[in-house]
Amino acid sequence: MSGPARPDLATLSLLVLLVLAVLLFLPLLGLGRPPVWVVAALLLVRLGLQFWRARTQPGLRRPGAWLLDVVLIGLLLWVGNGQHL
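^ DUF3017 domain-containing protein, sequence as received from the core. Prediction below:
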């Protein structure tokens, strides 16, 4: 007897991106801006999923994309703390 099927990591990553897209679309509808830390946390979760997928499937290793995500998260947190360029 097998247990419940585990969700695919690609599906989880897509779901995180969908939630992120909805949160970033809310200000366009006049519903308020989500906190910066929530957006950064979702990007961090997505980055973790990318690392996890790369461990199970070596063909998915994309260090350039990981670096871009880390820089984006850092900029979001820096600007969210009141620092400006």
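Residues 9-80 form one domain.
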